[in-house]
Design brief:
One of its GO terms (molecular function) is transaminase activity. The chain has 383 residues and is an alpha/beta fold. The protein is 36% helix and 17% strand. The relative contact order is 0.17. It binds pyridoxal-5'-phosphate. Pyridoxal-5'-phosphate binds next to helix 4.
Length: 383
């Protein structure tokens, strides 16, 4: 049977990972500054993570959500402790799209309304409801276009209030720092006012922290910098360091009822073991602090490279903006220097999303390689 060919693939086959590196079958070493789409939070094959998964697999890998699973409670407890988000309830699922899908469904149940407001350049996933609130028409099938959704400009408070006033809005969903869209972040004032407006018009405020959460920005959640309290927070990517796990944090004022949400695999024993190992390592190795201090280092380095027109994002969720399209540069970094970086819908942006325990010396390697390639570009332009 052939694979359904939906992914453009690089001709590289990683077979092993260690810390910030992956290795192919011939032992060629690649520096991973992309973490497989921001997923690798504590580094590849972290010993505590391997132990956690191995021990749990040796005991019990899975049983359904019809029996007690104390690992889920342990994970919820630890998440509260490490994130500092009090008075939330946790629902576990398997991916970012599923987390957002559950967030929207729950908001709709809670408010009895169905319209959802989203923003330009948003990416919330590819399943039915969340692709409808993603700003990319090319990935929406006719089936996905039946939802009641309205797109607004990011930072447009007046537009937001005008829509909320119609009193048919179940939820407002946003990424505090947009990932796929290109690292845009609105002002604190916008997030604060948006959150207040949601309260005023009884709409649920959903922060999609699937990419920006789990310490990536130097805060546990990106919204924490803005002093707001979302009603629902969706999480995935860094949460399992590659093990498929996602979830939503739900404000205690939103009441649970049996049957409201559900999943077969979500919150299984192995995924909880992965989630617990990630939080343990984040705490032990103070990875949020590392994300913040490496960011300062990167800012300093970037300020000396004139071809970088703008540094977007914060912590280890970064975008380097150039005045040319970066597809060729990314290929050269990968094939000539063995460094993985990412792209965004803004074609002039190089995305950097490394493991959170990355060190300055890894960024030194990256900037050396970048300068070699930028120098070549300057020469080829002159020549
Ligand atoms: C902000 C955001 N939300 C949701 C998703 C969807 O997550 P998943 O691919 O796990 O379904 C992504 C994935 O890139 C994302 O960046």
């Amino acid at each position: 049977m052939e694979l359904f060919d939906v992914y453009p693939l690089y001709d590289i086959t990683p077979v092993k990972g260690e810390g910030p590196y992956v290795y192919d079958a011939e032992g060629k070493k690649y520096l991973d500054l992309y973490g497989g789409h921001a997923v690798i939070s504590i580094g590849h094959s972290h010993p505590l993570y391997i132990d956690g998964l191995r021990n749990q697999a040796g005991k019990l890998g899975f049983y359904s959500n019809s029996v007690k699973n104390p690992l889920q409670e342990e994970l919820a407890q630890k998440l509260e402790e490490v994130s500092g988000c009090l008075d939330y309830q946790l629902f576990l699922c398997n991916s970012g799209a599923e987390a957002n899908e559950n967030a929207l469904k729950l908001a709709s149940f809670h408010t009895g309304k169905s319209r959802v407001l989203y923003f330009e350049k948003a990416f919330h996933g590819r399943t039915s409801g969340v692709v409808a609130v993603t700003d990319n028409e090319s990935i929406k099938a006719p089936f996905n276009k039946g939802h009641q959704v309205t797109k607004l400009a990011f930072d447009d408070l007046a537009g937001l209030e005008e829509e909320l006033k119609k009193e048919d809005v179940a939820a407002v969903i946003l990424e505090v720092i947009q990932g796929v869209g290109g690292l845009d972040e609105a002002s604190s004032q916008f997030y604060k006012s948006a959150s207040k407006l949601c309260k005023k018009y009884a709409a649920v405020f959903i922060a999609d922290e699937v990419q920006s959460g789990y310490g990536r920005t130097g805060n546990f959640f990106a919204f924490q910098k803005h002093g707001i309290r979302p009603d629902i927070i969706s999480i995935a990517k860094g949460m399992g360091n590659g093990f498929p796990v996602g979830g939503i944090l739900i404000d205690k004022n939103i009441e649970a009822k049996h049957g409201l949400l559900g999943t077969t695999f979500g919150g299984n024993h192995l995924s909880c073991a992965a989630g617990l190992a990630v939080l343990e390592v984040m705490e032990k190795e103070q990875l949020m602090g590392n994300a913040g201090s490496i960011f300062n280092y990167v800012q300093d380095k970037v300020s000396r490279i004139k071809e970088i027109k703008n540094l977007k994002g914060r912590g280890l969720m970064l975008g380097l903006e150039f005045d040319f399209e970066v597809a060729g540069l990314r290929k050269d970094l990968l094939f000539k220097h063995h460094i993985f970086t990412g792209a965004a819908s803004n074609k002039k942006l190089l995305r950097i999303l490394p493991p959170l325990n990355i060190k300055k010396e890894h960024f030194d390697n990256f900037f050396e390689a970048l300068e070699v390639e930028l120098e070549k570009l300057v020469h080829s332009e002159r020549g």
